[in-house]
Amino acid sequence: MGVSRGEFSSRIGFIMAAAGSAVGLGNIWGFPTQTASNGGAAFVLVYLVLAFCLAYPAFMAEILIGRYGQANAVTSMQKMSRSIFQKRFAFVVGFGGIICAALILSFYGILAGWMMSFAVEPIALFMGAENVAEWVVGSTVGRNVLFTSIFMLLTVFIIRSGVENGIEKWSKRLMPMMIGLLILLIVYVMTLEGAAQGLNAYLNPDISRVLEPDLLLSALGQAFFSLSLGTSVMVIYGSYISKQENMVTIGAQVTLIDVSIAFLAGLLIIPSMYVAQAQGVQIFADDGSLIAGPALVFTVLPSLFEGMGTLGLFVGLAFFVLMSVAALTSSISMLEGPVSYLVERHEIERKTATTWTGIGILAISFVIIFNISFMLDFVATLATEYGQPIIAMLCCVFAGWIWQRNSLLEEIKLGYEEAESSLFWKIWPWYIKVVCPVAIAAVFIHSLL
């Protein structure tokens, strides 16, 4: 192949990039909302268990496929295929993940644009530009087009620079910034009235609820979505890892960072909800259900910041900058999937492939914006509730049933010579063949019902 490939220059580079992909709006926005809607601490407990028992094994399948193939998702899977049928199956799974990533980015960019626009509002208010502040938080086509375009431009800028100078460099910068902002906001919120009640709801589980079918399936779906499974992202990131790295350890570290930041996000959002409630903002309906739902960060939290006076402008700015950074660390991984396919399969120069792929996805975003009342939910549902579970399940099937066991073991042993006698090897192959596909199928069937 005539196109040279990039590679992460260090283990920490991959961990920051993979964790950045996993840690996005799904963690900092979706996880707390799911927690508040599904029994608080009981959901947290189930999520943590399932993230390590089911999402981690599936995550390992994807990064191992990528590291073995040293190529984009389609080529990596086809390298381990032994028949025409398997090669065609590999194309469907790999290209399906690429399409899924592009669809997710098309609506994700709109949501990220909202985060950026809400970050502009406190700046405008501080400068006395009330009309600008009102416009940037209004649900207008112009606002959506502008901020979605800005966000996509930032994403394209990073991916055009390649693996080491783009993805790795910016992940190393953005991830520490995001974690620092998150911790500072948690410390501040904990000093406010009502935070203790929210902390109790978040950390004191009702054990009787942990086996509820809806809670179990919601927690499993959140675990798979937050780790970017089923989008080809982790296959391509895995292909940029050195053959000398211990993949079992790296996978565990990324999973730990992902669930830790989701947990920290809950420490911020759930107490913030109860602080807002203490200030007179209605959070829950009479039946105990969450009123705001997915719109939580655009309704409840701005009300909380408004009640803080001038200080609330700075807290609101910090919060929405945090959300924008989280979105950007994920969006760069979603764009890399289709770009790597064009660069390697069709030998298109990286900057050209990135620019035109970004323009194409932005065009889909514009179609959604001009039909936002029904298309936003439609595309989000199509990609995350249908596309991701199916592709993630097929990746598990591929690693468990098509990839030859000896070849798989040899790949794991690169960087981990003791793999064959490890607890991981005794459990993981069976998990990936049977448990993960069945569990993901359960999530998918649940979404249909």
TrEMBL record:
<feature type="transmembrane region" description="Helical">
    <location>
        <begin position="135"/>
        <end position="159"/>
    </location>
</feature>
<dbReference type="InterPro" id="IPR037272">
    <property type="entry name" value="SNS_sf"/>
</dbReference>
<dbReference type="GO" id="GO:0016020">
    <property type="term" value="C:membrane"/>
</dbReference>
<keyword id="KW-0472">Membrane</keyword>
<keyword id="KW-0813">Transport</keyword>
<feature type="transmembrane region" description="Helical">
    <location>
        <begin position="355"/>
        <end position="374"/>
    </location>
</feature>
<feature type="transmembrane region" description="Helical">
    <location>
        <begin position="89"/>
        <end position="115"/>
    </location>
</feature>
<feature type="transmembrane region" description="Helical">
    <location>
        <begin position="386"/>
        <end position="403"/>
    </location>
</feature>
<keyword id="KW-1133">Transmembrane helix</keyword>
<feature type="transmembrane region" description="Helical">
    <location>
        <begin position="223"/>
        <end position="242"/>
    </location>
</feature>
<feature type="transmembrane region" description="Helical">
    <location>
        <begin position="44"/>
        <end position="68"/>
    </location>
</feature>
<feature type="transmembrane region" description="Helical">
    <location>
        <begin position="312"/>
        <end position="335"/>
    </location>
</feature>
<dbReference type="InterPro" id="IPR000175">
    <property type="entry name" value="Na/ntran_symport"/>
</dbReference>
<keyword id="KW-0812">Transmembrane</keyword>
<protein>
    <submittedName>
        <fullName>Sodium-dependent transporter</fullName>
    </submittedName>
</protein>
<feature type="transmembrane region" description="Helical">
    <location>
        <begin position="254"/>
        <end position="276"/>
    </location>
</feature>
<feature type="transmembrane region" description="Helical">
    <location>
        <begin position="423"/>
        <end position="445"/>
    </location>
</feature>
<feature type="transmembrane region" description="Helical">
    <location>
        <begin position="12"/>
        <end position="32"/>
    </location>
</feature>
<dbReference type="InterPro" id="IPR047218">
    <property type="entry name" value="YocR/YhdH-like"/>
</dbReference>
<feature type="transmembrane region" description="Helical">
    <location>
        <begin position="179"/>
        <end position="203"/>
    </location>
</feature>
<dbReference type="Pfam" id="PF00209">
    <property type="entry name" value="SNF"/>
</dbReference>
